[in-house]
């Protein structure tokens, strides 16, 4: 298989302004037999390097709980781990030197949640999945029929509004209402658990596809990082890998469609909010996607956050609010409008992944998240959970504060 990245160059994954933002991540340090929190800073030669700040912040969770995480990150002292280029180059599993550091996902103890059906385009595709019962052969004809009944311009509808409820009444009368329309334009947002804490994969690692799925796609998204008191403290990029056939058969299979080994990718780094990057920047973000197959297939598209149907702050409130508590904070995928329908194989079947696909998700302010798709059982197994993390940090003397 081809390497995940064409060039192991930090400039390929960093934001457009390089190290100017408050960037934090995690690396595995083999000599410590565990992960470290790292700041991304310019080295003496100007090239980006990673600095271990675990003495100040043993976990990303600890940093996010401070009153001003970006300022705390910049003030934290630490020890150099090495150039970002070198750590990035050592991250792909098939070429890794296990005696040297490699990148991990930039979150740890946070709950990993996702908001579904937050864009009109993806909402209609979910309706199509539901009516097709997971059969891609039926999708093209159903797409035309759903467009005729519902229309293709739902961006102006505010979820839960009187106008949205009037549309619901019409569609119910026509027998065209759907559970996906309910969470897309109804009063209540869909918030579900995407992955377990510590199970996400990072930039340069393999992302997992369930081997039983024949119809699936990447979901390029922005993911917000939220402290336990509901403060939104930063953002990163994510791939909410989706199995369209499983969820299309039944919405009750959402867990099987979404939560599989290595099926949650986040990175490359968490960018903390400061004077140069805020939630308003997220609201204006355009997320780009490229899929490059070993068979020569190419797919590209964009997902502008400006077209989201529910404001990111409202989605965070729906996730957390007064009815749910997350003492270690949470990460929330905001959803995507990118639902690829371009045929890859037989006409009318639309897009689906093939093993070996390289997926690149980009944003000017957040950089690039790069992963190669493999079957779940062929990805690196996840064995380092919360108990292992606590034992490792205790052995390193990092849990005294």
From TrEMBL:
PANTHER family: 2-DEHYDRO-3-DEOXY-D-ARABINONATE DEHYDRATASE, FUMARYLACETOACETATE HYDROLASE DOMAIN-CONTAINING PROTEIN 2A-RELATED
Protein name per UniProt: Fumarylacetoacetate hydrolase
Record carries keyword Hydrolase: yes
Signal peptide span: none
InterPro entries in the cross-refs: FAH, Fumarylacetoacetase_C_sf
Family, similarity comment: Belongs to the FAH family.
Key words of the record: Hydrolase, Metal-binding
GO MF, one example: hydrolase activity
Keyword Transit peptide part of the UniProt annotation: no
Organism: Methylobacterium variabile
């Amino acid at each position: 298989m081809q390497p995940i990245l064409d060039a192991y160059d930090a400039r390929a994954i960093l934001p457009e302004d390089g190290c100017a933002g408050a960037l934090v991540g995690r690396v595995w340090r083999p000599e410590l037999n565990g992960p470290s929190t790292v700041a991304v800073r310019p080295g003496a030669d100007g090239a980006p390097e990673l600095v271990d700040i675990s003495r100040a912040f043993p976990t990303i969770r600890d940093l996010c709980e401070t009153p001003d995480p970006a300022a705390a990150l910049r003030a934290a002292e630490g020890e150099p781990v090495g150039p970002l280029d070198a750590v990035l180059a050592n991250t792909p599993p098939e070429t890794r030197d296990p005696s040297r550091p490699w990148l991990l996902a930039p979150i740890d103890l946070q709950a990993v949640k996702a908001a579904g059906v937050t864009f009109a385009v993806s909402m209609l595709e979910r309706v199509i999945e539901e009516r097709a019962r997971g059969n891609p052969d039926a999708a093209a004809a159903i797409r035309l029929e759903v467009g005729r009944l519902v229309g293709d311009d739902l961006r102006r509808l505010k979820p839960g509004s009187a106008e949205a409820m009037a549309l619901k009444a019409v569609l119910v009368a026509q027998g065209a209402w759907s559970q996906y329309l309910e969470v897309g334009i109804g009063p209540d947002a869909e918030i579900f658990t995407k992955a377990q804490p510590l199970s996400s994969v990072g930039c340069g690692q393999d992302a997992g596809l369930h081997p039983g799925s024949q119809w699936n796609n990447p979901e390029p998204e922005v993911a917000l990082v939220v402290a336990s008191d509901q403060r939104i403290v930063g953002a990163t990029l994510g791939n909410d890998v989706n199995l369209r056939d499983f969820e299309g058969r039944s919405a009750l299979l959402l867990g099987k469609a979404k939560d599989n080994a290595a099926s949650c990718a986040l990175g490359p780094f968490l960018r903390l909010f400061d004077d140069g990057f805020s939630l308003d920047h997220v609201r204006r973000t355009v997320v780009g996607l490229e899929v490059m197959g070993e068979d020569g297939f190419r797919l590209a598209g964009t997902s502008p956050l400006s077209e989201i149907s529910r404001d990111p702050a409202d989605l965070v409130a729906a996730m957390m609010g007064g009815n749910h508590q997350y003492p270690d904070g949470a990460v929330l995928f905001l959803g995507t409008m990118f639902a690829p329908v371009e045929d890859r194989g037989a006409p009318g079947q639309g897009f689906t992944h093939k093993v070996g696909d390289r997926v690149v998700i980009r944003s000017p302010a957040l950089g690039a998240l790069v992963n190669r798709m493999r079957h779940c059982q062929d990805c690196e197994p996840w064995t380092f959970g919360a108990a292992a993390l606590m034992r490792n940090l205790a052995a390193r003397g990092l849990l005294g504060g």
